[in-house]
């Protein structure tokens, strides 16, 4: 999923490199034009790193890459603070920080911020939720990389957690991040002035995504299906909806909820994120076949080697690309009717970046 936004500058009429790579076609009309007004585009100069999040989020122009970079940095810094000075053994703290601060595009947490802004909330209100989403995601891939599961020695271009710290510490680091996620939402949302009922709804959403209604169920089904030549699309969809898409949904919905979204808007955001999450896995499946380990930052070809059910395997490479195009159109359709606020534009931009 971190590959979803690979260096896509959003500008009228300029197809992204990723769209070319995946074989998707951008609609002929600009994705940055709402039903009511057109949105000016701001191109970042070389000094974009010096631009503040407030400038990017509230300026008259807009640039997808700047928005992503500025908010991803803000989330990274907030995560650094959240994990600073933990009262635990140094090895556990180091193990947690090794994975949570390893980089990545931070697509899920920035999605939470964008969804919050989409419904009129402030980015600061969604930052605790954004950090919690990244903690849950990081915990899942620490466990996913372990020898008892996918047995992958590389993550985000660095040695996996268990390779550096050993299996026992890696397991406990994942557990600790999962628990810390909910503590951080409760404390951080209160400090940000988010009403308690909104915080509770966000906690419920995130808990559902991380447990038997989400990642855990998807991972078990994934392992049970390895090497099964009879695997079919319904089983594969169950795996990716639970293992991948559910947390993307939770990021967007929890961000919208803390921003004050009503039920109807929250469900529209959920549907958008659902399609986006499936699309992300289809793209990952295609890249597992077509990209190198250096490009991916993790071991390429492992899904095929393990006999996993993937979209290229069941639909063929071109069929998988065509399905990705369908998902892209469905995701974007859910944004119709929202004002062209920064959150809305970024969500459109994320779709372009796929």
Q: How would you summarize what this structure contains?
A:
The chain is mostly helical.
Write a concise keyword list for the protein shown above.
354 residues, mainly alpha, Farnesyl Diphosphate Synthase, two-stranded antiparallel sheet
The arrangement of helices and strands along the chain is HHHHHHEEHHHHHHHHHHH
The number of strands is: 2
Work out the oligomeric state of the chains in this entry. single chain
Structural class: mainly alpha
Strand sequence of the main sheet, in spatial order? 1-2
Could you state the CATH homologous superfamily? Farnesyl Diphosphate Synthase
CATH architecture: Orthogonal Bundle
Mean pLDDT: 79
Give the count of structural domains: 1
- Which strand-content bin applies to the residues? under 5%
Q: Can you summarize the main beta sheet?
A: 2 strands, antiparallel
Give the class-level CATH name.
Mainly Alpha
Distance between the termini: 9 Å
Shape: globular
Radius of gyration from CA coordinates: 19 Å
Low-confidence stretches: 1-60
Task: Find the CATH topology.
Answer: Farnesyl Diphosphate Synthase
């Amino acid at each position: 999923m971190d590959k979803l936004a690979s260096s896509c500058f959003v500008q009228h009429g300029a197809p992204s490199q990723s769209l070319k790579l995946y074989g998707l076609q951008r609609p002929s009309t600009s994705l940055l034009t709402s039903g009511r007004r057109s949105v000016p585009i701001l191109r970042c100069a070389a000094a974009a790193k010096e631009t503040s999040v407030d400038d990017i989020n509230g300026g008259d122009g807009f640039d997808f890459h700047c928005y992503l970079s500025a908010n991803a940095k803000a989330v990274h810094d907030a995560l650094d603070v959240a994990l600073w000075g933990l009262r635990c053994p140094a090895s556990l703290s180091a193990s947690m920080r090794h994975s949570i601060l390893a980089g990545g595009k931070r697509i899920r947490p920035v999605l939470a911020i964008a969804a919050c802004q989409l419904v009129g909330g402030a980015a600061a209100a969604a930052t605790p939720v954004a950090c919690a989403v990244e903690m849950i995601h990081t915990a899942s891939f620490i466990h996913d990389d372990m020898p008892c599961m996918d047995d992958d020695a590389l993550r985000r271009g660095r040695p996996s957690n268990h390779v550096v710290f050993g299996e026992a510490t890696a397991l406990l680091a994942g557990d600790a991040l999962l628990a810390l996620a909910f503590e951080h939402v409760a404390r951080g949302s209160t400090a940000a002035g988010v009403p308690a009922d909104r915080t509770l709804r966000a906690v419920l959403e995130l808990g559902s995504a991380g447990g038997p209604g989400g990642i855990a169920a998807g991972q078990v089904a994934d392992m049970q299906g390895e090497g099964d030549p009879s695997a079919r699309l319904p089983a594969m969809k169950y795996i990716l909806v639970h293992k991948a898409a559910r947390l993307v949904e939770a990021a967007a919905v929890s961000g919208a909820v803390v921003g004050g979204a009503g039920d109807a808007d929250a469900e529209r955001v959920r549907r958008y994120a659902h399609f986006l999450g499936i699309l992300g896995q289809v793209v990952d499946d295609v890249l597992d076949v077509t990209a190198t380990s250096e490009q991916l930052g993790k071991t390429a070809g492992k899904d095929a080697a393990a006999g996993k059910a993937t979209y290229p395997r069941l639909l063929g490479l071109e069929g998988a690309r065509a399905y990705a195009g369908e998902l892209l159109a469905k995701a974007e359709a859910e944004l119709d009717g929202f004002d062209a606020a920064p959150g809305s534009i970024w969500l459109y931009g994320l779709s372009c970046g796929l």
